[in-house]
Amino acid sequence: MKFLLVDDSKTMRNIQKKILEQLGPVEFSEADDGVEALAVIEKSGGGFDMILVDWNMPNMDGITLVGKIRETDKKTPLVMATTEAEKVRVIDAIRAGVNNYVVKPFTPELLLEKVRATMDRMKAAA
Amino acid sequence: MTAAVLNTPTRGKAPPNFTTPFVNSVRNVFAKMVKIDVTVALPHEKTAPEPSRDVSAIIVLTGEIVGSVVVSFDQDAAIKLVEAFSSATLAPTNPDFADAIGELANMIVGGAKKDLGLSIGITVPNVIIGKGHYFAQIKNAPCLVIPCTTHVGNFAVEISIKQKPQGATP
Fold this sequence. Notes:
The structure holds two protein chains of two kinds. Chain A has one domain: Rossmann fold, CATH 3.40.50.2300. In chain A, 48% of the residues lie in helices and 18% in strands. Chain A has helices spanning 10-20, 34-44, 62-72, 87-96, 108-125; strands at residues 2-6, 27-31, 50-53, 78-82, 100-103. Chain A has a five-stranded parallel β-sheet with strand order 2-1-3-4-5, sandwiched between helices. In chain A, helix 3 (62-72) links the parallel strand 3 and strand 4. By secondary structure, chain B is an alpha+beta fold. Chain B contains four helices and eight strands. In chain B, helix 2 (19-34) crosses helix 4 and helix 3 packs across helix 4 (95-116). The radius of gyration of chain B is 15 Å and the shape is globular. The A-B interface holds A 8-12, 14-15, 18, 56-58, 82-86, 104-107 and B 28-29, 32-33, 85-88, 96, 99-100, 102-103, 106-107, 109-111, 113-114, 122, 124.
């Protein structure tokens, strides 16, 4: 599996990696913000099984990144992992194209459940 | 002391009960991601300029509330809490140390933001390391300090915010 983790906190990306390794062999790519994430996607040619996106990041925020990804790619599972917990934010993110939403702080169990459920749902819909 | 006591015309208007969301958020972050018990004491007002602790993260709030929140740690506590949070032993000079402190503050303020029930934006955190640093407080707003204790040391959440009057320009 190939995952892209987009978060301006390296600490948070490391925590996510440690949790998501429980899903099996995963090759991780990382980006500090939306601009870097788009560059990683372009350079790698895409093909990610999951992209986790933070909301508040410098240079390009997560909601803008999701919109840009969805301009050309409707299929890659996208999960927003953010401290933005208001209902209006969740609705905005879903409208932009995320498939699931995890509010920080999260337990390892919750993150695993959301990522698994999203990947299963997207596979079933393919 | 309660927030309501501080809501006088001379001190500016802070949102009512605005400390509770921060107390709940500290407990939630520590339970889910730091896994260290935290005891939160009653908030008190910072009535005169006094330095924050050794390691601080500041986040600015915008929108229907303006001001800032500082999460400030004693250095030993900061090192041990970062270790518990990130599973890495990091010196304060390591950039990843500031990153971890910033992310802890980000989750505390982000969690409180939802429960404040207003339209609020938050900046990415800035981290300051060094004894005796001060933060300038927003004018005409109280600065409330929520002291927090853990078995690895102490920290505090310093909240200096006020509700923007209706019709005020951003």
